[in-house]
Amino acid sequence: MALTQVSSNKCSDGYQKVFEHDSSELKCKMKFAIYLPPKAESSKCPVFYWLSGLTCTEQNFITKAGSQQAASEHGIIIVAPDTSPRGCNIEGEEESWDFGTGAGFYVNATQEPWKTNYRMYSYVTEELPRLINSNFPADPEKMSISGHSMGGHGALICALKNPGKYKAVSAFAPICNPIQCAWGQKAFSGYLGSDKSTWELYDATVLAESYSGPELDILIDQGRDDQFLSSSQLLPDNLIAACSKKKIPVVFRLQQGYDHSYFFIFSFINDHIKHHAKYLNA
Amino acid sequence: MEAYDARSLCVIAEELSEEDEADDEEAFVMVQDSHTHTPDAFCSHCRVLTHSGAAAHTRHTLLALGPAAQQIKEELSHSRGKLSQKIVEMENFASNLEEIFITVEENFGRQEQNLEQHYNEVLQTLSQSHETRAAALGEQKSRALERLYGELLCCGQTLDASKQLIERAQGVHRQRDQRAFLQAVMSIMKRVEQFSSKEVDLKLGMSLDFDVPTTDLSDVRQMMDSINVLPAPSAPVMNPQICNSATDTSLHVCWSLFSDDTVEFYELYWRLISDDCTMEPLQDVSQLKVKETHCTVSDLLPNAQYELWVTATNTTGISPASERAVYMTVPSPPVIRPRQCVSSLDAALIRWDSGNTNPVESYTLEFRESDTDRSNTATESVVAIPSCECLVQLQPWKHYIISVRAVNTGGPSDLSEPVDISTAGTCFHLLEDTAHPSLSLSADGLTMFYLDEDLPLSHMTFSDSTFARCVAVLGDLVPIRGQYYWEIEVDEDTEYRVGVAYEDTQRNSYLGGNKTSWCMRHIVTPSRHKYEFLHNGWTPDVRITVQPRLIGVFLDYGGGILSFWNAALRQHLHTFSCRFLHRVQPCFALDNPGALRLHTGLPAPPMI
């Protein structure tokens, strides 16, 4: 598991770096971004995993979200992986923006031709943390997860499927109930097949209804002027209803005037990092 | 004297060491004996080492060496103890003697001085009268001589004139020429006749007796007498009141006499000075006979002024009264109002009642950490507090015991009953005078009730500080810009507003509906529980999936933060970022009948 440094830039007293490695899970070369706060030079730091949305690479978050300043202050490592395997030469991989490359949906595909490479769930929950913990001054006991849109969905399912693994979870405009929306149905039928019961294993709303484990404290921000909210791709109300029923603590903030962009993320990333820091640095 | 003490001690120490040596020698002898027979017992009668079967000690009590050594050691230490006690007694006696020596020496010295002074005065007076008399005598002498000389002169002149006349008469008598004789003789004869008919005064013109003036030595006699007779004392001088000498019911009064005076006893008089003396007749005068030049007067009123004066008496008479001095009893201790005391992490506001009907000068607040080991905790004080409250800076995470004294010119009162203050969290109470008439408070002042039965508006009484529309009440935080945390316990269906508001927030508008208040509001709708975070009538759109039953409110002036938490879950709900320009107070309101229970004194959870 050799790491190749692609770039390194000093940022907010720490370093924003990009590495490339051969992923055993995804059978391809993968890049991930890692922000190392100044505190990482002297001690182990907790790790905040960021899952990006459709079409994104590891670059979007680190160049647009403005997370480094808060991460530097709170002494948190931020790891932002790519959103899908790349260059696997699977037929149809590049055909649409919401399926295939840049749209891994953080599931382990069970269907051909995707099942060999499209194992993003295992990649972000197993392989990547192992890699980070063994190559960087990361505290393996302290990890948390967040993401945007498809990545918000990814963050929620990773937390709900692995009780206790993540100390904190939050999301920006997450796809809350993918089995009920167009994006989710397209992706899940492609990666998981037609048996909808297998879809439920990757649906945050369904998972919330059966969650049992340590208390979660979920922070969700949603722009009110998000076109995907009005086109019913995100369906936060379903998740809120499920969490209300199961008494899973969620603070859901509908932010007036904000859309689905990284401008929206930039506006509230500090609140999220503070939310994560509360549990990571406890 | 001290040198003598030291020497005597040395002597004793030497004696002791000599004894030790003697013991050692004896022991040495014993050891030498033991070459032949090792002694294994001790005869308590003869006090020597011996053998258990020795014939010489058959009727004596023999002890084993261990217990015997122990016993003798105890006896020794007992005697040493006694001896050292005696040394202490002797030392005390010696120092007593020393004091007496000094006093006697001083007294005799004073006597000698007095005697010398008196005799000097007498000698001076005598020599003065001697001078006066010698001068008078000299004057008398020169006057008498002068006069005698004058008479002598006069006498000589008359003699000369008579001789001349006789010579002329003889000359005329020898005249041969009869005619010429007769011509001249008539006038001479006339003059001789005239002369001889004049009676010559041959008596001394002055008395030759000595004029002996009567010598007045009465003053000298008086002075001589006064060497042994006491004069009546002069008026004593009242000393001003000494700090910390008074209590709330007694005064310790001191005065001084002139060092020459001898006084048998004093009489002390005192009288209460009434504040409105123009209204009331003068208070009764009390009186006490005292031997010393100080006296403690008791059974007085607290925080009151008394005028005192004193006379001195000896066998000769009574002195005039001293000037009147004004002394003051100290106040009664104040009474702390524990319910009105509020605290935070780094300060406490302590309030109390004066405990005195008259105003006192100031108050002193004393505080110390309440520690199991009392000796390690220093007491700190805040002095010159003009009113019945004091804001005191404290260290966080400590327990303090705080008391108050009232102070006047007479000194400080006893300590008030203490109040325990913990700086682990925010402690405050609700300001009842701000409560809407429909809002009632529990006896402990921490639960608010909005009862179902609505009072008719005519039965409600509103003051300027009462909330008139919102059924609300304010709390009373320590007035410093610090950090505060408190919790509110709510029921599921209670509709409430909790948060903070400026002290002068509008009493006729709803909390959160204006720029002077910030609050979290809970509304029950048929479909869900709605939460608002209201300021100036605006709220962000926030959904909360788990209803908080215990709401944590965190206020940080410095950070400009007011945040709300689900305290049971430690879940952050909302944060207002705002610069509080004035002092804010916790506020609580019920929008429908129900209850809120306040929890104070809690530390802020670590994640905040």
Please, could you describe this protein's structure?
The complex is a heterodimer of chains A (282) and B (608). Chain A has 282 residues and is of the alpha/beta class. Chain A is 34% helix and 24% strand. Chain A has helices at residues 58-64, 68-74, 120-135, 150-161, 182-192, 196-199, 204-209, 227-230, 236-246, 262-280; strands at 3-11, 14-23, 28-36, 45-51, 77-81, 138-148, 169-172, 218-223, 250-255. In chain B, a hairpin with a 4-residue loop joins β1 (41-43) and β2. In chain B, α2 runs antiparallel to α3 and α2 runs antiparallel to α4. Chain A: It catalyses: S-formylglutathione + H2O = formate + glutathione + H(+). Chain A: Keywords: Cytoplasm, Hydrolase, Serine esterase. Chain A: Its main location: cytoplasm. Chain A: The active site is at 149 (charge relay system), 226 (charge relay system), 260 (charge relay system).
Kindly summarize this structure in a few lines.
The complex is a heterodimer of chains A (282) and B (608). Chain A is 34% helix and 24% strand.
- By DSSP, the count of extended strands of chain B is 33
Using CB atoms under 8 Å apart, which protein chain pair has the greatest interface?
Answer: A-B, 21 and 17 residues
Radius of gyration of chain B: 54 Å
Query: How many angstroms does the end-to-end distance of chain A come to?
Result: 32 Å
Q: Low-confidence parts of chain B, pLDDT < 50 over ≥5 residues? A: 1-35
Instruction: Tell me the major beta sheet of chain B.
Output: 7 strands, antiparallel
Give the helix level of chain B as a range of percent: 25-40%
Which strand order spans the largest sheet of chain A, edge to edge or round the barrel? Answer: 1-2-3-5-4-6-7-8-9
Question: Would you tell me the structural class of the helices and strands of chain A?
Answer: alpha/beta
Estimate the strand proportion of chain B: 25-35%
> Which structural class fits the helix and strand makeup of chain B?
alpha+beta
H and E order of chain A: EEEEHHEHEHEHHHEHHEH
Largest sheet report of chain A: 9 strands, mixed
